[in-house]
Amino acid sequence: MTDLIELTTRTWNDRDRTGYRDCYAEDAELVVPGLAGKGHEVLLDFWDENMAAFPDNHITVHRAVARDDVLVEESRLDATNTGPLAGPDGSPIPATGRSVSIPFAGIHVVRDGRITSSHFYWDTYDMLGQLGLLEH
Questions:
Q1: What is the CATH number of the domain that holds 42?
Q2: b/e per residue, 84-120, with b = 16+ CB within 10 A?
């Protein structure tokens, strides 16, 4: 089942938006810092926001573990912020031009070969610091 993590990572890194979407059930739940919802529309909103803010982003999987219907991944996103970010109130934050290296964890539930739930966790404070967006 860890091959599903390999597939989502490959489609993400290859910029295969449709392939990434198809790894998920139509009613899949997505929970990430600042965004939560269900369905392909929410998933593709997440995709679009990340690809716009960090067009050169690349995910590296360090570990993937499967047990029963649960997949857990420990990964890292490396990217340069060359597009606007969505602020907490939805207003755009201009690109900083800075690079980030963000470790993250994903906990996924799988049914019939597709992901039905993904919860991603990362340190937003660390990311904002790397982007130079925190007051000192």
A1: 3.10.450.50
A2: ebeeeeeeeeebbeeebebebebebbbeeeebbbbeb
Question: How does strand 85-86 pair with strand 114-122?
Answer: unpaired
Residues 64, 2: Cα–Cα separation, whole Å: 6
Domain that holds residue 22: 3-130
Q: Is residue 136 part of a domain?
A: no
User: Cα separation of 18 and 21, whole Å?
Assistant: 5
Give the model confidence (pLDDT) of 77-118 as tens digits: 999 999 999 887 778 999 999 999 999 999 999 999 999 999
